[in-house]
Amino acid sequence: MTLVDARGLRCPWPVLRLARTMRETAGDVSIVADDPIAPGEIAALAEQNGWQVGPVETAIGNGFLVRR
Fold first, then answer.
1. CB distance 28 to 66 below 8 Å
2. pLDDT tens digits, 40-66
3. Which contacts (CB < 8 Å, 24+ apart) does range 6-9 have?
4. Per-residue pLDDT averaged across 16-38, rounded?
5. What φ, ψ does residue 15 adopt, rounded to 5°?
6. Cβ pair 27, 17 in contact under 8 A
7. Which of 5, 13, 18, 49 is deepest in the core (most CB within 10 A)?
8. Do residues 4 and 30 make contact, with C-beta atoms less than 8 angstroms apart?
9. Domain CATH number, residue 48
10. How many angstroms separate the CA atoms of 66 and 42, rounded?
């Protein structure tokens, strides 16, 4: 599984990094982002692309697991 560390980045950067990683990776992707807007933006991107999103604990903090 690929991990995107988007801590310290403000939207739209976390979502842009997630979208790029999803294009470049065949497997699931976890993302950790601390921008308060990021959860809604991640959910919107996932819905637009038919992906599933759920909570996940990573080595760097709580985040989201995105699956195709």
1. yes
2. 999 999 999 999 999 999 999 999 999
3. 6/31, 6/32, 6/33, 6/34, 6/35, 6/38, 7/32, 7/33, 7/34, 7/60, 7/61, 8/34, 9/33, 9/35
4. 97
5. -70, -40
6. no
7. 18
8. yes
9. 3.30.110.40
10. 9
**Domains in the chain, number:** 1
**Mean pLDDT of the residues in the chain:** 97
C-alpha to C-alpha distance for 31 and 8, rounded to whole angstroms: 13
Mean pLDDT, range 19-29, rounded to an integer? 97
CA nearest 65: which of 21, 24, 35?
A: 21
Question: Residue 67 belongs to what H/E stretch?
Answer: strand 61-67
**Which residue range is the domain that position 26 belongs to?**
2-67
